[in-house]
């Protein structure tokens, strides 16, 4: 991991990021930029903020997701709106929560996966607030979903990326790759068995720009927050889940076709328990 240290809080930032000082596009791994973004440093006490040109009032943080996903005009799958009221209390979901490693092959509905993704990283209220807390609102996590054959109603098998602002999915890589993910995770068969596997990935630079060496700790804490949200929501929907941290990082990255900046942190199989 390349630590970028803490964002300068005085005029020295102009020499540290000369492109930004001139108001020109600036970014990490700039050669991957598909749509340029401009750094805004008008208030040094705020997180490192970037603004996509042409999209006013829609800030994104640190390394832009636009750098990580080439825009190839694949259509987005719009997800149904999430529900803010459920049938099970938080207390009951906590009491029922168990780590489950055996799943039926039942197809999940689009509203179900919509709900689970929303509790992971969805927007809440107004602005950029999300369902899980993030150190300095730096939001280092990206969410991917492995969908098996007939895993989600109306979706083809493949790896999908969750688009937070539009609450939608876009195809990242085609094909049922749950078996390959299972192999990369030390042949844990239940990963291939579950209809859906959620994979949390982190871009550490988004947080290290503000917090330096402590960023790694904060990012991992945030992944834990998201994991618990997903697990409790799964229980409340009559599903089961388990948190998986045993895998070969590089093999998972290869299966997913991830950019260098993305680091897999969590594999979360979700499905009906046997």
How would you portray this structure in words?
The protein is an alpha+beta fold and 274 residues long. The chain has two domains: 13-67, no CATH class; 77-271, NADH Oxidase (3-Layer(aba) Sandwich), CATH 3.40.109.10. Helices cover 28% and strands 19% of the residues. The chain has a seven-stranded antiparallel sheet, sandwiched between helices. Strands 1-2-3 form a three-stranded antiparallel sheet, with no helix packed on it. A hairpin with an 8-residue loop joins strand 1 (37-40) and strand 2. Helix 4 (110-121) packs antiparallel against helix 8 and helix 7 (204-211) packs across helix 8.
Keywords:
single chain; 274 residues; alpha+beta; three-stranded antiparallel beta sheet; 9 helices; globular; disordered N terminus
Please give the number of β-strands: 10
Going by helix content, strand content and strand pairing, the class is alpha+beta
In CATH terms, the superfamily of the largest domain is NADH Oxidase
Spatial sequence of strands, sheet with the most strands: 4-7-6-5-8-10-9
Q: What overall geometry do the principal axes of the alpha carbons give? A: globular
Approximately how much beta-strand content do the residues carry? Answer: 15-25%
Quick structural summary:
With 274 residues, the protein is α+β, with helices and mostly antiparallel strands. 28% of the residues lie in helices and 19% in strands.
Write the SSE topology.
Elements: H1 13-16, H2 18-21, E1 37-40, E2 49-52, E3 59-61, E4 77-78, H3 90-96, H4 110-121, E5 141-147, E6 158-163, E7 168-174, H5 178-184, H6 190-193, E8 196-202, H7 204-211, H8 215-236, E9 240-241, H9 249-256, E10 263-271
Antiparallel strand pairs: 1-2, 2-3, 4-7, 5-6, 5-8, 6-7, 8-10, 9-10
Helix pairs in contact: 3-8, 4-8, 7-8
